[in-house]
Amino acid sequence: MKLRIAIQKSGRLHEDSIKLLKECGIDINNGVNKLKTEATNFPLEVFFLRDDDIPQYVEDGVADLGIVGENVVLEKGYPLETVEKLGFGKCRLAMAVPKSMEYATVQDLHGKRIATSYPVIVNDFLKKAGIQAEIHEISGSVEIAPGIGLAEAICDLVSSGSTLFMNGLKEVETVLRSEAVLVANSKLTAEQKMLLAKLVFRIQAVKKAKN
Ligand code: ATP
Ligand code: ZN
């Protein structure tokens, strides 16, 4: 009996995910280019995946658990259980417009084209605000969209905001605040739930020690 956890293969969440497991006293050897590895002192198998794929793997039950940004969990929309917020990978999904554009309220987005990699979350935001706008889904370099005439506004992940500034944009709305979370498949067995409780207990102890 083992738990299988999916974490990001490389990128912003990779190091902190590994670090968290290590701080929980779980020994894993993360060899470069490995697809998976096994903990030596805890019944845990670790899969290394693209962050966007993690919710689906957990939903499908290929992995039991995953560490991924709330932004990705929400965008994918699977009914996963968020077990614990992890306190790293903090960022926000922000609406931004060219510095030169006059912007007073969210109404100013009406009729605009908005470029984003998060169409589901943005659509939800616009709907709640009662705004009709055109969403253009693009997968990367969203911040260049206004400069090349693709859109009048963008909605993208930021932490400091310096990338926006460098691209002549200003942040005008916070659409979502996000951090890395531990998610679980909703149909774990009783035995898996006991192992999960053990892991969560350790995570909470690690978090407490940092406060
Ligand atoms: P992958 O190759 O796994 O698909 P990626 O390029 O989609 O990687 P990263 O840029 O590594 O993803 O970001 C992973 C997660 O890190 C984001 O989904 C978000 O939750 C978080 N994050 C924290 N700060 C930032 C930031 N400034 N910009 C983007 N993502 C951030
Ligand atoms: Zn990704």
UniProtKB/TrEMBL annotation:
Superkingdom field: Bacteria
UniProtKB keywords: Amino-acid biosynthesis, ATP-binding, Cytoplasm, Glycosyltransferase, Histidine biosynthesis, Magnesium, Metal-binding, Nucleotide-binding, Transferase
Cell compartment(s), UniProt: Cytoplasm
Catalysis performed (reactions): 1-(5-phospho-beta-D-ribosyl)-ATP + diphosphate = 5-phospho-alpha-D-ribose 1-diphosphate + ATP
GO terms, molecular function: ATP phosphoribosyltransferase activity
Occurrences of domain ATP phosphoribosyltransferase catalytic (ranges): 50-204
Cofactor: Mg(2+)
EC numbers on record: 2.4.2.17
Coiled coil: none
Pathway: Amino-acid biosynthesis; L-histidine biosynthesis; L-histidine from 5-phospho-alpha-D-ribose 1-diphosphate: step 1/9
Regulation: Feedback inhibited by histidine.
Family: Belongs to the ATP phosphoribosyltransferase family. Long subfamily.
Job of this protein: Catalyzes the condensation of ATP and 5-phosphoribose 1-diphosphate to form N'-(5'-phosphoribosyl)-ATP (PR-ATP). Has a crucial role in the pathway because the rate of histidine biosynthesis seems to be controlled primarily by regulation of HisG enzymatic activity.
Protein name as catalogued: ATP phosphoribosyltransferase
Organism encoding this protein: Chitinophaga caseinilytica
